[in-house]
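With this grant's support, we have settled on a layout for protein records. A representative record follows, to show the layout.
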Amino acid sequence: MWLRQHSPQHLEECHALILGALRGRSAGASAGSIVLGAGACTEIPLAEVARASDEVVLADLDLPSMRRAREELSSPSLQKRVRLLSSDLTGSVSANLHRLVMKQPWSRFVPEGAAALFDAAASCLERCEVADPPAIEVGEGEFGLVVSSLVLTQLFSYPLLDLLDHVQEIAPELLGEQERHHRYQEAAQAFRVLVILAHLHLLRQLVDRGGVVVLLSDVRGFVFTVQGTDHDAAHRRAIPLVPRTLPDMVRELFEVVEERHWEWVTDVPGKDVLGRGYEVVGYVLR
């Protein structure tokens, strides 16, 4: 596997946090587990989690990847413990934002320039409904282990990217002007915070008394130019992904049992291609 070769620490850190959380689950807590943003379970020691659980729910929109992860379990008895749940973990935020975008008279704003265009975009973000917490088809307090697996930034970044894709489609010459538009930047940051809080509230809702939560999240991306210089500031550019207040939001809602930080490389640099990676935080929470 590519990750095992280029970012073995990433998998080791994820597995260690999840297995440690399983051991820290109280004896009276539910033996059920759920993984939000499961995908192919690349970061999840699924066999070990299944052995320690009565049932494991994998929740994501990517059903084919979740099926493959379940089929890779060698034991049929373990496969039977794994249930797949196709679920939009945002509670339809992208659909809500899309409806607002489609109602805007963009043809009127484009001739007026960047200020009018990004005022309209900001208005869409300010009015977008964010379910808090989002509803998914499982019971409250049903799980002794709840894992959020590197999905947090996707929950807000995909809707924001969809909005900017629409801007690029109708006014490509204005794309990039959002960086200088104060109202848009404030609206985008407030949107990120709302989506993050809704997800944290979902984690609280799902976990049983005495259970534990593992939150794995990218916090910054980075690009680098030369193989082996991913830790060298002179060859590296950081890209913030979450608000600086994320640690405060986590601590307001949970007791932090363990916190770890590490990095993983997703792409190595090549000719005319930048290397890419992420700084990650991993929490074990009660």
Observations:
- The mean pLDDT is 93.
